[in-house]
Design brief:
It is a single chain. 18% of the residues lie in helices and 26% in strands. By secondary structure, the chain is an alpha/beta fold. The protein has a ten-stranded mixed β-sheet. Helix 2 (183-197) runs antiparallel to helix 3. The relative contact order is 0.09.
């Protein structure tokens, strides 16, 4: 269904059961899967906010069952070599923004006014609270959470809670329970958190040692994420050395 005064440009392809609200603008080389909801005033697929962009027919690829509330903006990529991609079941609340060349996984929640710069990667089931800011090229891990107004320019590891600027304050314990992680997994994640942030080893050494000490799948996921970080990870809020 298409509401009044909506604009759907010629490069847009929508699959079955999509709803396009009043005054929505869908543009560019945009593909959206089944059951997506585009609410009033969204602008989805417009050109990237990048001075280097030269009007190439770049793409935005959206999976099924995503919701874009009022005045959300999502930009297509800045080059033909890479697409902006969004998985399935994500919820973008009003006035949030997703920049060019971002890669969003599945079942994430991006709350009102959150600003996500270009080239950001968001894994699965993360919760980005209202008015949060994410710097370009940062990564946000699975089941992590950003508290309202938080800002990051470094990577936020899976299962962790961020607050203020580039800091974490523990695990996303409520999210872990809701996601079905059992007590043993949650306890081992807590031990891993202290191993990474409270131990005497350098981070790289702590990751190598942690690979041997912590065998559960969630812990290995954290360690692999940290090991792959190029920007560094958010530090513990109690760390006074930085």
């Amino acid at each position: 269904t298409v509401g009044p005064f909506a604009v759907i440009d010629e490069g847009v392809r929508l699959e079955a059961d999509c709803e396009v609200g009043p005054h929505a603008h869908l543009t560019g080389q945009l593909e959206a899967g089944k059951g997506c909801r585009f609410h009033t005033g969204v602008v989805i697929g417009d050109a990237p906010q990048d001075m280097k962009y030269a009007n190439e027919p770049t793409r935005l690829l959206i999976g099924a069952s995503n919701v874009f509330r009022e005045h959300v903006t999502v930009h297509r990529s800045n080059s033909l070599d890479e697409d902006t991609t969004i998985g399935e079941g994500n919820f973008f609340m009003a006035n949030s923004h997703l920049g060019h060349n971002c890669h969003v996984g599945n079942h994430n929640v991006i709350v009102n006014g959150a600003l996500i710069a270009g080239h950001v990667t968001i894994e699965d089931r993360a919760f980005i609270s209202g008015s949060c800011m994410v710097h370009q090229f940062a990564r946000i891990g699975t089941l992590s959470m950003m508290q309202g107004g938080a800002g990051i320019s470094k990577d936020l590891p899976p299962f962790m809670m961020s607050m203020a600027n580039n800091t974490v304050c523990g695990l996303n314990t409520v999210g872990l329970r809701r996601a079905g992680l059992n007590l043993q997994e949650r306890t081992e994640l807590k031990k891993l958190y202290h191993h990474l942030y409270s131990g005497k080893l350098l981070l790289g050494e702590a990751v190598i040692q942690g690979m041997e000490l912590f065998s559960s799948a969630p812990c290995q996921q954290v360690l692999t994420f940290v090991q792959a970080s190029k920007r560094g990870i958010c530090r513990d809020i109690r760390d006074r050395n930085e």
